[in-house]
Structures are given as structure tokens and as C-alpha cells.
Design goal:
It is a single chain. The chain is an alpha+beta fold and 389 residues long. The protein folds into two domains: 230 residues, 3-Layer(bba) Sandwich (FAD/NAD(P)-binding domain); 122 residues, 2-Layer Sandwich (D-Amino Acid Oxidase, Chain A, domain 2), CATH 3.30.9.10. The chain is 38% helix and 30% strand. α1 packs parallel to α10. The protein starts with a strand and ends with a helix. The protein binds adenosine-5-diphosphoribose and P-hydroxybenzoic acid. Adenosine-5-diphosphoribose binds next to α1 and α10.
Length: 389
Amino acid sequence: MRSQVVIIGGGPSGLLLGQLLHLRGIDAIILERKTREYVLGRIRAGVLEQGLVGLLEEAGVADRMKVEGFPHDGTLISYGDEIFRVDFQEHTGTPVMVYGQTEVTRDLYDAREACGAPTVFNVENVVIHDADSAAPFVTYDVDGAQKRIDCDFVAGCDGFHGVSRKTIPDTVRKEFEKVYPFGWLGILSETPPVNHELIYANSERGFALCSMRNANLSRYYVQCSLDDKVEDWSNEAFWDELKRRIPADTAAQLVTGPSIEKSIAPLRSFVTEPMRWGRLFLCGDAAHIVPPTGAKGLNTAASDVHYLYGGLRQFYEENDSTGIDAYSARALSRVWKAERFSWWFSSLMHRYPDQTEFDHRMQVAELEFLRSNKAAQAAMAINYVGLPY
Ligand code: APR
Ligand code: PHB
């Protein structure tokens, strides 16, 4: 079998790239390790930058998001008894779109199935061959048989635990990592959100976040120890802890209820360089990971897709490899800015186990500066809504 592009991974990165390529008549097959249902069962963040909104429109999958999504013009930040708002519209003239990543993925799968573009599920033993040649190919097993696809390019959209990043030789690849000494315990509940905008809270007991999916589906997080287990946290214990970490008048408004999902996620910053090796291009979580504090995971995957799609389109339509040759440097330039913002916001909002009183005073001083200085709020807003592609 032959395909112009083989996309490894049927998560948001692979699906978005596949849809954009399909609309330009560039054939791409997606190889996905799991089933569609499994992929759609993952609960992830739900804040979309305008760049991603534009890509979804370009891919023809923005209709439901425009109806069910919630534009947010700002966010609230609380520390101790203080709470203030960072106004995205005032500083950038643009909102973010609150729309669950699961819904983005669902819309992309629906579009892919509607157009009949090929996706192979339940693949195993995917191996990328001769990526550093002009004739790469991919082998994989499905239904007990080994298959081979010859291609021009491979897009490694297979996430942090995929095979693509590891295909780049250790002698070529350089990795950068920071592991945070805490996790996020998240809960999904069919309750009305406590506020119509997100609330990021730095309290003496640790970080908390009040978010949402829709008018009757709320998403909350509390910072927890890496030693915690989900079974250590009853719903009641979660709600009680959340109330202790947000301003009292907000806590008094909180509508609690049973959790329909509860999980603990570790936090890490991670970048691989380069994001290209020969005919292999890494996209999204295959190349980089951010702590979720700045909601940059999906949004940084989106800018990777934008750059790679543009390069592949230029190659096939204009016989010009400028775009693909510039891909890694262009993508990494924006990736590192997203890493910095996510690290900065995580460092500002969390309580670190080894934090000294001086460290805490630095946090309070920066929060005070952010609360009182429009230029500081503008800098945060510009990064939060998304730097230009
Ligand atoms: N072969 C085929 N598919 C694979 C393999 C493999 N060896 N390894 C992983 N996969 C699949 C996973 O099952 C998953 O569906 O690749 C997909 C990778 O998807 P994500 O991990 O979601 O990564 P990405 O598409 O880059 O999305 C980035 O979405 O999942 C969030 O936290 C992530 O916000 C980030 C954004
Ligand atoms: C979420 O709604 O899951 C969410 C929102 C903002 C973040 C992280 C997660 O920064």
C-alpha cells in the first residue's frame, strides 16, 4: 500500500492534520493504537486559542463549537482573599473559546468518517523505517497480520508515549524536562459552574481551578501530592478541599454533586529537539508536554499542525520544500514560548513542597504586581489567548 503521508496517532493532532490534508487532496492514512471510543473517553482541557478556532474553521469542523462553545473574555485569579480579573478583550481584542477537547476530537472523527479518509484502529507494533531516506515506510500489525505502507512523509502524532519521538536517534535527539512535585486531582460533575469564567486560585493549601464544559457540566481541579491516589479522595473530601482554596464568597456559591469522572494527572514540562528527522515530523504531545495550568497542550499541538500542514501543502502544490525544511525551527520557536508561559503560570499559582517563606513572598509580590499593573495583565492575556502562529 502507498500513501503520501502516514499519520501515526488518532488524537487531536493527527486528526486535525489529516482533515486539513484531505481538504487539499493530499492523502493521509491515520494509524491509531486504540479505538475511537477509547480516544474519545479521554478527559482533557477545554480552552481553545483563536489560532485553533481558525484551524478548526479551515478544517470545516467548527460548526458545533460555534453553537456549543463559550467565548470567554477574561479569567479570574485569586490568592488569599484577593481576587482579580485579567481581561483578554481589553488587552488583546480576542476571547478564548471554552469547548471540551473531547468534543474537538469527536468533531474531527465525525468529519473524517464523513469524508471516508482512512483510519486504522487497534494497530500494534508500529515501526517507522528509513525515515532519513527519500523512501520511508511504516509497518504495523492489525488483526494478526503485518502491513506495510510506503509513503513520502510520516507525521508522528502519537503523543508522549508513542514510537515516533524514539525513532529519532539518541545521537540526534535532545530532550528537556522538568517534573513538578505535585499533581492535579480533577473532577467532572453535572453541576452548574461556580462562575461564568475560569478561576485560577493560589491558596495556602495549594492550587485550585474552577472550569467548565457547559452550563451543567463543571470541571474542577485541586493540586495534590504525587503520593495521592484517586481512591484517597471521596467526592466530599474533594468539595471540602476545593471550598478551602477559593474565596469564601465563591465557595458559598459552589454547587457540589457526584463526580462522573475523577482522576489524578502528573505535571511535566518536556520538549524534544529537533521536531523533524528526515521525512519524519513530530507533532503535538509526541514532541512536547506542558503543565495544564496555561491550557497550552492542545493549542501548541495546533500550531505544530498549522506549520506542518503549510509545509506539506507547499511541497505538494508548489514542489517547494521551504516549509518542511523550516518546520522544526518554526514550531519550536512557538513551543518554547508556550512552555515558558505554562511554567511561569504553574510556578506562580502552586505551592511547592520545598517552598521557603521567601519563595512564597515572591509569589505574592508577583500576584500583587499582576493584580495592580495593566502591562503585566496584558502580557499574561497575550500569552493566554495565544501568541500568533
Ligand atoms: N501507534 C499508533 N497510535 C499511537 C501509538 C502508536 N505506537 N502511540 C500512541 N498512539 C495514539 C494514542 O492512542 C493517542 O490516541 O496517538 C494518539 C496521541 O494523541 P494525544 O496523546 O492526545 O496527543 P496529541 O494528538 O498530540 O494531542 C495533544 O491533546 O491529548 C491531549 O494532552 C494532550 O492537550 C494535548 C493534546
Ligand atoms: C479544563 O477546563 O480542563 C482546564 C481549563 C484551563 C486549564 C486547564 C484545564 O488551564
